[in-house]
Amino acid sequence: MPKLPKFMEGESKLAKLMDEGIEFLPEVEIPSPFGTVRLPKYGLPPLKPPKIDERRRKALGHAAGITAAQVVGLIPWVGDAAADVIEDLHGKEIKRILTPEEYERYLIEDKVAPSLVAMVRTFIYER
Which residues contact 41 (CB under 8 A, 6 or more apart)? Predict the structure, then answer.
């Protein structure tokens, strides 16, 4: 029988990983002339998949729209303006769909990851 890697030995370590996740970088505060910028801690979220209902499915669709708008932004001359409009429209819908707590978490996650990834991470942390 093949041997498990060291990090997977013992059921308690794997269960802890599934419940807590792995942290690579701690939360960082960066001083700037405009105030302090906070970056959230970065790592793997808990490994249990979130429950996706209709409301969250709509939010994920709008987050995918924001991520896809970045591709539109690559079109010369008009792409940047078009991408900004698309991102703003999807952003307003996301704010309307999410609860205030979810939206706050989404904004934190959106600083370090693309919108679609940030939305999934928001739902994983907001169980």
Answer: 23, 25, 26, 27
SS (H, E, C) 3-24: CCCHHHCCHHHHHHHHHHCEEE
Beta bridge partners of 37: 30
pLDDT tens series, the chain, 127 aa? 456 556 555 556 666 666 677 777 788 899 999 899 888 777 777 777 778 899 999 999 999 999 999 999 999 999 999 999 999 999 999 999 999 999 999 999 898 889 999 999 899 876 6
CA-to-CA distance for 104 and 124, rounded, in angstroms? 14
Pairs from 94-97 (Cβ < 8 Å, separation ≥ 24): 94/59, 94/62, 94/63, 94/66, 94/119, 97/55, 97/58, 97/59, 97/62
Bridge partner residues of 36 (DSSP): 31
- CB contact at 8 A, 40 and 111: yes
3-state secondary structure of 113: coil
